[in-house]
């Protein structure tokens, strides 16, 4: 399990143009950019659970979110970062999808961020058959399977899907409410390749 951020402003991609042309245009989002955190869990066999979104919304409401992946879960807080309360919601989402029990435990690898190792999260995992194993500090960039194999292709797919969205919706501003639809398109492609 790990988190990554998806922003409303895509990274510009390379554009092919005729030699000698000095100005080549591309469509990009008009806003400054906001970040939505996405928590993902993938197993060693290539299976995955639907993503969990954390929105930077003080008054989060479900009707604001459009066209997300099937089975995704979401929460909101002021910062948009994973905190203790949101991690507990992620664990409930994980439990619902994976269905571990005290007799048939499930191993969950993650970094040792403060939100992941709270007493309430540890108690929840103990009661529901989830065994947490955290990576040592400052080495997840080398050890975390999601960082090593999934998030690179995921970010490229997100950029492509965002570019497509911008082309298909001229004159509209990309907001955080459209990110689930972008992720619905990009996530399956990045976890299966």
CATH architecture: 2-Layer Sandwich
CATH topology type: Nucleotidyltransferase, domain 5
* Shape by Cα distribution: globular
Quaternary structure of the protein? single chain
Name the beta content range. 15-25%
- The end-to-end span amounts to 18 Å
**How many structurally independent domains?**
1
Instruction: Give the helices and strands as they follow along the chain.
Output: EEEEHEHEHHH
Short description:
By secondary structure, the protein is an alpha/beta fold. The chain has helices at 84-98, 119-128, 140-143, 145-168, 179-192, and strands spanning 2-7, 35-40, 52-55, 73-76, 106-110, 130-134. 35% of the residues lie in helices and 16% in strands.
Polypeptide structure, described:
The longest helix has 24 residues, at 145-168. The chain is globular. The two termini are 18 Å apart. With 193 residues, the protein is of the alpha/beta class. Helix content is 35%, strand content 16%. Helix 4 (145-168) packs across helix 5. The chain is built from 5 helices and 6 strands. It has one domain (2-8, 31-188): 2-Layer Sandwich (Nucleotidyltransferase, domain 5), CATH 3.30.420. The model has no long low-confidence stretch (mean pLDDT 83). Strands 1-2-3-4 form a 4-stranded mixed β-sheet, sandwiched between helices. A two-stranded parallel ribbon has the order 5-6. This is DDE-1 domain-containing protein.
Distinctive features:
193 residues; single chain; 35% helix; Nucleotidyltransferase, domain 5; alpha/beta; four-stranded mixed beta sheet; globular; 6 strands; 5 helices; two-stranded parallel sheet
